[in-house]
Amino acid sequence: MGDWARRLRSTRAETPVNELGPDLIARVARGDEAAFSQLYDLLVGPIFGLVRRIVRDPAQSEEVVQEVMVELWRSAAKYSPERGSATTWAMTLAHRRAVDRVRSAQAAADRDDMVGRRETSRPFDEVSEQVTTRLEQEQVRRCLGTLTDLQRESVVLAYYGGRTYREVGELLSTPLGTIKTRLRDGLIRLRDCLGVA
Amino acid sequence: MTTADIHALTGAYALDAVSGVERMEFERHLAECDSCAQEVMELQETASRLALAASAPPPPALKARVMDEIRATRQAPPVTEPVPLRRRSLATRLSTVAAAVFFVAAAGLGVVVFQQNQQIDDTQAQIAQMEQILSADDAKLVPMANPDGGSVNVAVSSSQDRMMLFSEDLASAPAGKTYQVWTIADGNPRSMGFLEPNNGNAVLAVSGLSDAGAVAVTIEPDGGSPQPTSDPIMSGSLTS
Q1: Which of B50, B70, B75 lies at the smallest CB-CB distance from A159?
Q2: pLDDT value at position B113?
Q3: Integer Cα distance of B79 and A21 in angstroms
Q4: Are B182 and B192 in contact (CB under 8 A)?
Q5: CATH code for the part of the protein at B140-237
Q6: Which of A117, B33, B122, B212 is in Cβ range 3.0-4.6 Å of B185 for a Cys bridge?
């Protein structure tokens, strides 16, 4: 399990069969349940961690993860390697679903109902401490450290907090134009540090 | 919104930090801007690394539920032909009815703009988006009359997987209530948001129809309901 993050990342070049890449997605697209089971095992950790971080409520997080997984199964045939790696395809979908969930008024009502439950649940940091992907975490943490404070705050609020840039601007009392630039510059710096593309 | 403004959104877009309307406007821009598409791809790749770093162990029982559900879920077909990137001109694509509704709606949006200056950007994006939906080959207009006054029109395109609702002279919801919009797939309603008319005008953009066959509007307590608590006052079919 320790090096799956590296396996997940190595989706651009040739990909061995037991890793997440176009071949595995193609098998899933043909309805291969064993391939899907493998894809699930590779992706569920990051998807669950991400969704949980945005949605917070454990029961709702599970629902969203289930939706995301079923959507990956349903739309596997639409995945196109030219538009990015399989991991990015999956994570983009997961992030969007989580964000859609917290932004809908329905979720707002649900969250209000669940304030009590949420307060008794484990705080996020404790959960994240159990993460097996130390290496990936450390690299991302190190690279986040190369951003300016303002870039990092904005990127973290937007991505892990599921906030819109307008909300980020409001939270940081910063003009919208500045926030947009900060998000872009922050990501570009992160991209260069992580050696993406 | 100027082109430079749109371009600055690559970061916000890659982080899903844009509103629904901005997302669609930006995607429209992406289809015509290769350098933006490349940048967005790299920034999305970068963002997904943030996801990998947030990994957490899921409940073990989840997998069995997912496996059960996929066995009961039909998969979408592959994309078999390239989708044309450029739109044909609006005039050649719009039917007379669609054009009439479009211009009435655009005029309605103008009223809203006049009153709420800060929403100009959003409004322009809404008009652009409606124009784009109506220019799809499978565009469809679904009129729904409100028994309490006014109407809601739905412009929908299955190929674009989205729709836009816009009201005309829509009566305000009763005090303490709101109009909640649902899509219905296999009998299951899914909340898509609210219509809050201002001088009878309200607009709602919805992306991700997930094969919904119908759209419905119910009156719900302010803040909305997780599931409809009353019968729809308006509904229409989304299938062609």
Answers
A1: B50
A2: 41
A3: 19
A4: yes
A5: 2.60.40
A6: B212
pLDDT digits (tens, 9 = 90+) for B180-189: 999 888 778 8
What is the Cα–Cα distance from A146 to A189, expressed in whole angstroms?
Answer: 8
**Separation CA A164–CA A155 (nearest Å):** 10
- In this prediction the pTM is 0.59
Q: Does B10 touch chain A (CB under 8 A)?
A: yes
The full 3-state SS of chain A, as one line of letters, equals CCCHHHHHHCCCCCCCCCCCCHHHHHHHHCCCHHHHHHHHHHHHHHHHHHHHHHHCCHHHHHHHHHHHHHHHHHCHHHCCHHHCCHHHHHHHHHHHHHHHHHHCHHHHHHHHHCHHHHHHCCCHHHHHHCCCCHHHHHHHHHHHCCCCHHHHHHHHHHHCCCCCHHHHHHHCCCCHHHHHHHHHHHHHHHHHHHCCC
What is the per-residue pLDDT across A143-196, written as a single tens digit (0 to 9) for each?
999 999 999 999 999 999 999 999 999 999 999 999 999 999 999 999 999 988
Q: Which residue has the tokens 């005029």?
A: B107
Residue B63 contacts A, CB cutoff 8 Å:
yes
Whether chain B has a CB inside 8 Å of the CB on A13: the answer is no
Beta strand B177-185 pairing with B188-195: antiparallel
Crossing angle between the packed helical segments A149-159 and A176-194, to the nearest 10 degrees: 90
| Domain extent listing, chain B | 3-134, 140-237
- Please count the other Cβ atoms lying within 10 Å of the Cβ belonging to residue A102: 20
Tokens linked to B217? 């509007």
Q: Alpha-carbon distance A57 to A59, whole Å?
A: 6
SS3 of residue B156 by DSSP: strand
Question: Which residues in chain B (158-187) have CB-CB distances under 8 A to chain A?
Answer: 180
ipTM, two decimals, is: 0.80
Which residues on chain A are in Cβ contact (under 8 Å) with B119?
Answer: none
Using CA atoms, how far apart are residues B29 and A35, in angstroms rounded to an integer? 36
Rounded Cα gap, residues B174 and B193, in angstroms: 17
- The C-alpha atoms of residue A114 and residue A99 are separated, in whole angstroms, by 18
Per-residue tokens: A51: 């969704």
Are B55 and A136 in contact (CB < 8 Å)?
A: yes
Q: Tell me the residue type at A49.
A: G
From chain B, pick out residues whose CB is under 8 angstroms from the CB of A64. Answer: none
Cβ contact A47:A65 at 8 Å: yes
Gap between the Cα atoms of A135 and B236, Å rounded: 52
Burial A154-165 (b: 16+ CB within 10 A, else e): bbbbbbbbbbbb
